[in-house]
Specification:
Elements (H helix, E strand, L loop, with lengths): L1 H66 L6 H15 L4 H23 L2 H4 L2 H36 L7 H4 L12
Length: about 180
């Protein structure tokens, strides 16, 4: 009976079945690896957004403290407010990176004002806010580095052979790095 099965094309069916099962296992495994990597990227991006939000929340307090000493520096305050709203409205890593560059520039000008006001530099609120801002910048740099590392890993997974055959089936595309200006 066994010989009849193999001779009658049953062996071919077994080979085809094994190939189909192997392809199915490959796709299942690849899909799970891609989804795991993509979830890690999304989690890391959430951390970047949290840190951007934390920094953004400190800005109004810093601006109010500086305003008390340098009320005539209206243009700088407007630039900070504008940069903060662009950052809050950023939807993609590329938009966030561009808005972040504007925020960093505006903050630099705001902090430069403090150099002209020795009594402001000695103000405890200002000193505390500067420390908080420095801590936020460090957290943001760490979150950005972690995000970019996970994006690199994800992008590598979806372009390596033979896994690069699967992302098209699953609708996955390479992610954008969060590139801050120097």
């Amino acid at each position: 009976m066994k010989k009849m099965f193999l001779a009658g094309g049953g062996g071919l069916l077994l080979v085809i079945g094994a190939v189909v099962a192997g392809a199915g296992l490959f796709l299942w495994s690849t899909y799970n690896r891609i989804v795991t990597a993509e979830t890690a990227v999304d989690g890391a991006w959430a951390q970047v957004e949290n840190n951007l939000q934390r920094r953004g929340d400190l800005i109004p307090n810093l601006v109010e403290t500086v305003k008390g000493y340098a009320a005539h520096e209206k243009e700088v305050f407007e630039q900070v407010a504008s940069a903060r709203s662009r950052l809050a409205g950023a939807a993609t890593p590329a938009e966030a990176a561009a808005a972040n560059a504007g925020m960093t520039s505006a903050l630099g000008r705001l902090l430069a004002i403090a150099e002209n006001y020795p009594e402001l530099k000695a103000n405890q609120n200002f000193i505390a806010l500067q420390d908080e801002l420095a801590g936020s910048e460090n957290r943001l740099a760490t979150a950005r580095r972690d995000y970019n590392e996970l994006v690199r890993a994800f992008n590598t997974i979806i372009v390596r052979f033979p896994a690069n055959l699967a992302p098209g089936l699953f609708g996955r595309q390479a992610r954008t790095f969060f590139e801050a200006e120097s």
